[in-house]
Amino acid sequence: MALVIREDIPAHMADLRAWLDETRGTPLEEMRDFFTARIDGYEEHMSPWAKAYEVAAEMLPEDCAPLLDLGCGTGLELDAVFCRFPALPVTGIDCCETMLSKLREKHAARALTLRCEDYLTADLGGELYGAALSVESLHHFTPAQKALLYRAIFRALRPGGVFLNVDYLACCDEEETVLRAECDRRRAAQGIAPGQFVHFDTPLTVPHERAILHQAGFTRIDTPACIAGATFVLAQK
Q1: Are 225 and 55 in contact (CB under 8 A)?
Q2: What is the dihedral of CA 189, 191, 195, 200, to 10 degrees?
Q3: Three-class secondary structure of residue 86 per DSSP
Q4: I need a surface site. Which of 35, 85, 185, 229 has the fewest CB within 10 A?
């Protein structure tokens, strides 16, 4: 059965273009500042993807220890992961200290190592983890940035380890192209430096994601599900 990301692509694209027109003059925000300002309502905002968090925990292999969580935020995916693996050692990386503080409060007794870093430049190590997980975090990057990150994740996994990415992926080439062009336009209009990390969605299509993962070294890549627009991509080293 073919993976369906959007039931009605023309309607989705019409809504997206209307939203882009409405927000055309809205300034881009630095990523850390964006989430710090919205910490109080963040978990409620992400509640439509509650089922995706649960399924992500179910898809992790039994031998996933230790787990690397990229963009762990307040730990919504870890709430579900720890229900299944209460003693699982986890290294979580996120650029927002405010969100990490909330995660520490929720799971103070867990085997958590939290790092407030940019995971694009963080040292992920070599063959340390049984699995890597990211949920609704990686849809802000260019293909070149993802290529570097996916190679780093590949190196960080033990042989046979898996990388489970649950994320907003573009439903068609047009969505990917339109959002990338609008992001570039807004960055240029604000004079934002190329290396500055801002909050704006630039998802890639499934074929584009698969190609970058394959180039990073992953040999088996599956897309087993899409829940409320969150597409599951499971890649094995």
Answers
A1: yes
A2: -30
A3: coil
A4: 185
Which domains are present in the chain? Answer: 9-17+49-236 (3.40.50.150)
What does the pLDDT look like over 126-184, one tens digit per residue?
A: 999 999 999 999 999 999 999 999 999 999 999 999 999 999 999 999 999 999 999 99
**Three-state secondary-structure class, residue 220:** strand
Per-residue confidence (pLDDT) for residue 9, from 0 to 100? 97
Spatial distance between the Cα atoms of 43 and 76, rounded to a whole number of angstroms = 7
Structure tokens at 185: 């336009």
Q: Contact, 235 vs 220, CB < 8 A?
A: yes
Cα 190 from chain centroid (whole Å): 25
Q: What is the pLDDT of residues 169-223, one digit of tens each?
A: 999 999 999 999 999 999 999 999 988 999 999 999 999 999 999 999 999 999 9
Q: What is the dihedral sign for C-alpha 28, 32, 33, 37?
A: positive
